[in-house]
Amino acid sequence: MLALLLCLSLQPAVALDVTRDDVSAFIDRMVSEHQLDRDYVTAVLARAEVQQSILDAMSRPAERVMPWHEYRQIFITPERINAGVAFYAEHRDRLAQLEQDTGVSQAMILGIIGVESYYGRITGRNNVVDALVTLGFEYPKRAKFFSSELENVFLLADEEQLDIETLQGSYAGAMGPPQFIPSSYRAYAVDGDGDGQRDLLNNWDDILASVANYFAVHKWRAGEPVAAMATLSDNHRVRPQDTLKLQSTVGQLSKAGALFATELGTDAKAGIWRLDGVDGDQHWVGFHNLYVITRYNRSVMYALAAWELGNSVVAEAGAAASSEPAG
């Protein structure tokens, strides 16, 4: 099996066949529904390549193959926290203004940028059109979704005057430090500095404002908690869930034997998940704001990592500031 996977990963890229029925239908739709030039769309797709490495990566996302304690260790490191502190120092005023304007905490924005791209250091080296062509036409499990994202990247390039063939990003077609997929870019990106463009590839004013806008649109609640670790009583009746939607309330979980700290009322929506910790099972109770984070990435582990990283950066920045000698 290992030899087979190695062989597949070394397969050369294959040019997309634009005469295929599904590809031809896509081109027809872009012309008839969006009035894009047929020759332009066809030429872009004809130069696109199906990448086996992208299909391989799609089959093993870290959230699915790693236990929580290993996944967490990717992001909660002294190096990444220090990078976040430096980033925070550079953008502190802008982040403070965004928190005031939107209610989205600075820590949450810092956590997202840190997890998604190591504060802009890692934004992906895959050609976005290649990625979306590969997944839209050669990954049947989610072909409809990625074909829609391919449609959106054509529209995005037209709207924002981007060179579609030079766009780079993740193996799933996510772009820039915030790693927005094309549909999210179109829906949630904002012009943070008022220059008339929404640039999520290079403009930090736009990037930070767009992350804040994403959370605001998904109803982030200022000042409310995200999650709390719980212990279970000996005679508990808690059943950890495997879906993201909050299925209980604070009161119901407490009554069932989950012991955790929160200032939320008993009627507040909540969910509980079991994760693999270093020393065994961990149980995490998540609240409304945890659910909001999962709108960015559909994973409880992702949400917890981004939340913890952002809080760690703010705490470390505060500790460093308090230790500085008075001027």
Keywords:
327 residues, alpha+beta, five-stranded antiparallel β-sheet, two-stranded antiparallel ribbon, globular
Commentary on this structure:
The protein is an alpha+beta fold and 327 residues long. The chain has a domain at 227-286. The chain is 53% helix and 10% strand. The protein is built from 15 helices and 9 strands. The strands form 3 sheets. Strands 6-8-9-5-7 form a 5-stranded antiparallel β-sheet. Helix 6 (68-75) crosses helix 15 (300-323) and helix 8 (106-117) packs across helix 15. The radius of gyration is 22 Å and the shape is globular.
The biggest sheet, with number of strands, parallel, antiparallel or mixed sense and barrel status, is: 5 strands, antiparallel
Gap between N and C termini: 63 Å
Count of individual helical segments: 15
Please compute the radius of gyration using only Cα atoms: 22 Å
What's the pLDDT, averaged over the residues?
94
Q: Give the overall shape.
A: globular
Helix content: 40-55%
Low-confidence stretches: 1-9
- The secondary structure category is alpha+beta
Taken in chain order, the helices and strands follow as HEHHEHHHHHEHHEHHEEHEEEHH
Q: What share of the residues does DSSP label as strand, in percent? A: 5-15%
Strand order of the largest sheet: 6-8-9-5-7
Q: Give me the count of strands.
A: 9
Quick structural overview:
The protein has 15 helices and nine strands. It has 327 residues and is α+β, with helices and mostly antiparallel strands.
What's the helix and strand layout?
Layout lengths: L1 H8 L4 E2 L5 H14 L3 H9 L2 E2 L1 H7 L3 H4 L2 H8 L2 H25 L3 H12 L8 E2 H11 L4 H18 L7 E2 L12 H7 L15 H14 L9 E6 L15 E2 H6 L2 E2 L9 E9 L2 E7 L1 H6 L6 H24 L4
Antiparallel strand pairs: 1-2, 3-4, 5-7, 5-9, 6-8, 8-9
Helix pairs in contact: 6-15, 7-8, 7-12, 7-15, 8-15, 9-10, 10-11
